Amino acid sequence: MGTATATPTETFTEKFRQIGNVPTLPTAATRALAIVNDPNCSIRDFSKIIETDPALGTSLLKLVNSSFYSGGTKISDIHNAIVRLGLRETQNLILAVSVRSVFRWMPKGQEAERDRLWRHSSLTGVLSRQINEKLGFGFKGEEFSAGLSHDLGRIMLAVGYPDVFCKLANQKTTDENHLLRLEMEMLGFTHPELGAWLTTMWNLPDELTEAILYHHDPAKAPRHAVLAATVSLAEELANFMEMTKQVEGANISHNPGWSFMCSQWESVDNLDAELFANAIMSDAVTEAETLSLLSA
């Protein structure tokens, strides 16, 4: 009788059990992300939770006083920071701070790649927000969270499979399909599967997990294909901006996220794809620079 093949979930769980090294969200962040969805949640309740974690509170204040969010008056306490931002935007920034902390789990010697991945992730989050706003999808922050978290699987590769991570990082390509094929050849699974496993372990919302898992093939997403498509398009634009240092000239016609959107809405299909991409990238630059304040 043959031995059953372990599922990716079983493989990840056993791997990280052996090395005893699973990144976790800060306790205060987990509580804050959960309570914000409670219709009875008050700003006072929310601020009390954040105040239990000085590092989280300090990072949040740094962001709220940045040029992007600042209203001209310096904010020095968490309660007023939430009043300025609103609960949903505060939730987004808490997740940004928390995800940034996970990047610090990457092995020593990978600082340059860690910082590159953070810039890529934060830019993808911001671009996802711009796409949502311009196309009117109606997301209320989940698009930013999904874009920001889409490559958590790459971080987990660095933590649990450092040799493979280094080989993939040295490929110096943004051809995602090529990298996914290499991951399957070397490991038998891909970084989206690993990222989805991690967010499930963290009990993050299903739509976030699904967007991470399917952002390279959003049409296959069973319930949240539009969110996955948004992240897919945002990631391609982020790759373009990083490679070219430009905010004009991206060709998104073959992006699976854009193709999905065009298949669903005639209004999107009728847009000039290049002009749309240019507008998205130009508007994302300032906000992405703000998130760079969350240094290692």
What radius of gyration results from the CA coordinates? 19 Å
Strand tally: 0
Count of spatially separate domains: 2
Biggest beta sheet attributes = none
Structural class: mainly alpha
CATH architecture of the largest domain: Orthogonal Bundle
Order of helices and strands: HHHHHHHHHHHHHHHHH
Helix content: 55-70%
CATH superfamily of the largest domain: Hypothetical protein af1432
The CATH topology label of the largest domain is Hypothetical protein af1432
Q: What's the tally of helices?
A: 17
Strand content: under 5%
Low-confidence stretches: none
The span between the termini is 50 Å
**Inertia-based shape:** globular
Mean pLDDT: 87
Q: Briefly, what CATH class of the largest domain?
A: Mainly Alpha
Compose a concise summary of this entry:
By secondary structure, the protein is mostly helical. It has helices spanning 8-19, 27-35, 43-51, 54-64, 78-85, 87-103, 111-135, 142-149, 152-160, 162-169, 176-187, 191-201, 206-214, 225-244, 256-264, 266-269, 273-291.
